[in-house]
Amino acid sequence: MDIETIEKGLYQNGGQLELATFGMGCFWGPEARFGSLPGVIRTRVGFAGGHTASPTYREIGDHTETVQIEFDPSIISYTEVLKEFWQNHYPNRDNYKGRQYISLLHYHTEQQHRLIAEAKKEMEGQLRETVETEISPFTEFTTAEERHQKYYLKRYPKALEQLSGLYQDQELLRDSTFAARLNGFVKGYGTKKGVIEELEKWNIGRAEKLFLIDLFSKMKW
Ligand code: MHO
């Protein structure tokens, strides 16, 4: 069974997926955090927000480490994404490495822009200070090197071996919802029971669902 076919039902839900792009420090952690959320279909890490050409991890230029997610807004709203964003990093800390780790929000639509303004006001009320997140329209996202994608899951080579039938190449692993959940799980977001309960709700075939649940339940880490 290949993962693309299995997961197709998840995003051909009749609805449209939405993009969100943001930086909140080293991108490994937030990729895992957002990857664990129901409604988040894909996560990728990369570089955005700067002007220098072809950023890489070593030559990041004036770009910022960012996470880009695709989500199903009928399951998780952009406002909920923003809440998760601001409640899980301190947006006003001193940045010791130029722009690499700044708090950054790129909006993809005018509606996102408005929702950011609302959520920011609320966050400022909670923090009792001005939120210094850089807010600007999305322009470009450069995907980071493979070794940075699903970073925590890649710390478990034994698990990767058990997954190798599903993921014949690295791009399939990077773009998979199941891999995003596993990456969140190994980082400590959510429980085994929670992941299984969510898989139960996935809009995919019964056999495919049982296959994934079985694989996850029996996984040797
Ligand atoms: N934890 C790393 C940062 C990696 S993150 C992808 C470090 O302490 O250098 O920037």
TrEMBL record:
It comes from the Bacteria. InterPro entries: Met_Sox_Rdtase_MsrA_dom (IPR002569), Met_Sox_Rdtase_MsrA_sf (IPR036509). Residues 20-155 form the Peptide methionine sulphoxide reductase MsrA domain. It is an enzyme of class 1 (oxidoreductase). It catalyses: L-methionyl-[protein] + [thioredoxin]-disulfide + H2O = L-methionyl-(S)-S-oxide-[protein] + [thioredoxin]-dithiol; [thioredoxin]-disulfide + L-methionine + H2O = L-methionine (S)-S-oxide + [thioredoxin]-dithiol. The active site is at residue 26. Keywords: Oxidoreductase. This is Peptide methionine sulfoxide reductase MsrA. The lineage of its organism: Bacteria, Bacillati, Bacillota, Bacilli, Bacillales.
